Amino acid sequence: MTVSEVLAELNGISRRTFYRWREMGTGPTVLKLPNGELRVRRSAFHEWLNEREEVAA
Questions:
Q1: CB 26 within 8 A of CB 18
Q2: pLDDT tier at 10, thresholds 50, 70, 90
Q3: Is 39:30 a contact under the CB 8 Å cutoff?
Q4: Mean per-residue pLDDT for 22-48?
């Protein structure tokens, strides 16, 4: 997935927030392509989302 696709899936999260999460080490795992672009494996994205799921009390 491209960064834009990830942002769209997260319904309005800003690009800056995504990169801040990366800086903090809390964002999804990314692959850096030789041209410098980032990609997120769909499976890694869904795993990352599942790790953040909260159960309602």
A1: no
A2: very high
A3: yes
A4: 96
Q: Burial level of 28, CB count in 10 A (0-12/13-18/19+)?
A: buried
Spell out where the chain has E strands. 31-32, 38-39
**CB of 44 within 8 A of CB of 50?**
no
For range 6-21, the mean pLDDT: 94
Terminal Cα-to-Cα distance of the chain (whole angstroms): 33
Residues in the chain: 57
Q: Residue 51 to residues 1, 26, 37: CA-CA distances in angstroms?
A: 19, 11, 25
